[in-house]
Design a protein that fits this description.
The chain has a single domain, classed as Roll (Diaminopimelate Epimerase, Chain A, domain 1). Strand 2 and strand 3 form a beta hairpin. It is α/β, with parallel strands linked by helices. It has a 4-stranded mixed sheet, with helices on both faces. The chain contains 5 helices and 4 strands; from the N terminus they run H-E-H-E-E-H-H-H-E. InterPro entries: TPM_dom (IPR007621). It comes from Spirosoma montaniterrae. This is TPM domain-containing protein. Pfam families: TPM_phosphatase.
Amino acid sequence: MSSPFTPEEQQRIVEAIRQAEKATSGEIRVHVEPHCAGNDPVARAIDVFAQLGMHQTKQQNGVLFYLAYADRKFAVIGDKGINAVVPVGFWEETKDLLRNHFAVGDFVGGLRQGVVQAGRQLTQYFPYDGSTDTNELPDDISFQ
Protein backbone atom coordinates (compact mmCIF):
# COMPACT_ATOMS: atom_id res chain seq x y z
CA MET A 1 0.00 0.00 0.00
CA SER A 2 1.43 3.34 -0.96
CA SER A 3 1.39 6.25 1.42
CA PRO A 4 1.63 9.98 0.84
CA PHE A 5 3.27 10.21 4.28
CA THR A 6 6.78 9.49 5.48
CA PRO A 7 7.09 7.02 8.36
CA GLU A 8 7.67 9.99 10.69
CA GLU A 9 4.52 11.73 9.46
CA GLN A 10 2.53 8.53 9.90
CA GLN A 11 3.84 8.27 13.46
CA ARG A 12 2.77 11.86 14.20
CA ILE A 13 -0.79 11.07 13.03
CA VAL A 14 -0.91 7.83 15.04
CA GLU A 15 0.40 9.67 18.10
CA ALA A 16 -2.40 12.25 17.73
CA ILE A 17 -4.91 9.37 17.65
CA ARG A 18 -3.41 7.81 20.77
CA GLN A 19 -3.42 11.12 22.62
CA ALA A 20 -7.02 11.85 21.59
CA GLU A 21 -8.16 8.40 22.71
CA LYS A 22 -6.43 8.55 26.12
CA ALA A 23 -9.31 10.43 27.75
CA THR A 24 -12.21 8.76 25.94
CA SER A 25 -13.79 5.41 25.23
CA GLY A 26 -14.26 6.63 21.64
CA GLU A 27 -12.29 5.22 18.74
CA ILE A 28 -10.68 7.23 15.94
CA ARG A 29 -9.36 5.77 12.69
CA VAL A 30 -7.68 7.38 9.69
CA HIS A 31 -7.98 5.75 6.27
CA VAL A 32 -5.91 6.97 3.32
CA GLU A 33 -6.00 6.00 -0.33
CA PRO A 34 -5.04 7.72 -3.57
CA HIS A 35 -8.43 7.59 -5.29
CA CYS A 36 -12.01 7.74 -4.10
CA ALA A 37 -13.91 4.74 -5.47
CA GLY A 38 -17.28 5.87 -6.77
CA ASN A 39 -16.26 9.55 -6.56
CA ASP A 40 -18.38 10.31 -3.45
CA PRO A 41 -16.11 10.58 -0.40
CA VAL A 42 -18.93 10.25 2.14
CA ALA A 43 -20.27 7.07 0.51
CA ARG A 44 -16.72 5.69 0.30
CA ALA A 45 -16.08 6.60 3.97
CA ILE A 46 -19.25 4.71 4.96
CA ASP A 47 -17.95 1.64 3.08
CA VAL A 48 -14.52 1.93 4.71
CA PHE A 49 -16.14 2.41 8.14
CA ALA A 50 -17.87 -0.95 7.67
CA GLN A 51 -14.76 -2.66 6.24
CA LEU A 52 -12.73 -1.56 9.27
CA GLY A 53 -15.38 -2.94 11.65
CA MET A 54 -15.93 0.45 13.22
CA HIS A 55 -19.60 -0.31 13.96
CA GLN A 56 -18.45 -2.87 16.51
CA THR A 57 -17.52 -0.39 19.24
CA LYS A 58 -19.55 -0.90 22.39
CA GLN A 59 -20.90 2.66 22.54
CA GLN A 60 -21.05 3.20 18.76
CA ASN A 61 -18.61 6.10 19.12
CA GLY A 62 -16.15 5.53 16.31
CA VAL A 63 -14.97 8.39 14.11
CA LEU A 64 -13.38 7.89 10.69
CA PHE A 65 -11.20 10.42 8.87
CA TYR A 66 -11.16 9.42 5.21
CA LEU A 67 -8.68 10.94 2.73
CA ALA A 68 -8.34 10.26 -1.00
CA TYR A 69 -5.21 12.38 -1.47
CA ALA A 70 -4.72 12.18 -5.26
CA ASP A 71 -8.38 13.07 -5.85
CA ARG A 72 -8.26 15.77 -3.15
CA LYS A 73 -11.40 14.41 -1.46
CA PHE A 74 -12.09 13.65 2.16
CA ALA A 75 -14.85 12.92 4.63
CA VAL A 76 -15.29 12.73 8.37
CA ILE A 77 -18.01 10.47 9.69
CA GLY A 78 -19.08 9.25 13.10
CA ASP A 79 -21.11 6.29 14.29
CA LYS A 80 -24.63 6.59 15.74
CA GLY A 81 -23.51 7.08 19.32
CA ILE A 82 -21.39 10.15 18.69
CA ASN A 83 -23.68 11.58 16.01
CA ALA A 84 -26.49 11.61 18.55
CA VAL A 85 -24.61 13.86 20.99
CA VAL A 86 -22.22 16.20 19.16
CA PRO A 87 -23.44 19.77 18.61
CA VAL A 88 -25.14 20.69 15.35
CA GLY A 89 -22.46 21.75 12.89
CA PHE A 90 -19.64 19.87 14.62
CA TRP A 91 -18.76 17.71 11.62
CA GLU A 92 -18.87 20.74 9.29
CA GLU A 93 -16.52 22.63 11.61
CA THR A 94 -14.17 19.66 11.65
CA LYS A 95 -14.26 19.43 7.85
CA ASP A 96 -13.56 23.18 7.59
CA LEU A 97 -10.52 22.73 9.83
CA LEU A 98 -9.26 19.90 7.61
CA ARG A 99 -10.05 21.82 4.43
CA ASN A 100 -7.99 24.82 5.59
CA HIS A 101 -4.94 22.61 6.14
CA PHE A 102 -5.48 20.46 3.05
CA ALA A 103 -5.83 23.54 0.81
CA VAL A 104 -2.17 24.36 1.46
CA GLY A 105 -1.05 20.73 1.17
CA ASP A 106 -0.76 20.14 4.92
CA PHE A 107 -2.45 16.74 5.12
CA VAL A 108 -0.57 15.70 8.25
CA GLY A 109 -1.40 18.90 10.15
CA GLY A 110 -5.02 18.77 9.03
CA LEU A 111 -5.49 15.17 10.11
CA ARG A 112 -3.75 15.79 13.44
CA GLN A 113 -5.86 18.87 14.21
CA GLY A 114 -9.06 17.10 13.14
CA VAL A 115 -8.22 14.12 15.34
CA VAL A 116 -7.57 16.43 18.31
CA GLN A 117 -10.90 18.21 17.76
CA ALA A 118 -12.82 14.93 17.46
CA GLY A 119 -11.04 13.64 20.55
CA ARG A 120 -12.26 16.64 22.56
CA GLN A 121 -15.86 15.88 21.62
CA LEU A 122 -15.44 12.19 22.34
CA THR A 123 -13.93 12.99 25.73
CA GLN A 124 -16.83 15.28 26.59
CA TYR A 125 -19.51 12.72 25.75
CA PHE A 126 -17.66 9.43 26.19
CA PRO A 127 -15.12 9.91 28.98
CA TYR A 128 -12.52 7.24 29.58
CA ASP A 129 -13.41 4.68 32.23
CA GLY A 130 -10.21 2.95 33.25
CA SER A 131 -12.04 0.00 34.76
CA THR A 132 -13.88 -1.07 31.61
CA ASP A 133 -12.39 0.71 28.59
CA THR A 134 -10.19 -1.09 26.12
CA ASN A 135 -8.72 0.09 22.85
CA GLU A 136 -11.30 -1.57 20.62
CA LEU A 137 -9.77 -0.65 17.25
CA PRO A 138 -6.18 -0.29 16.04
CA ASP A 139 -4.68 3.22 16.09
CA ASP A 140 -2.61 2.74 12.94
CA ILE A 141 -3.54 4.37 9.66
CA SER A 142 -5.22 2.05 7.17
CA PHE A 143 -4.23 2.32 3.54
CA GLN A 144 -5.87 1.05 0.37
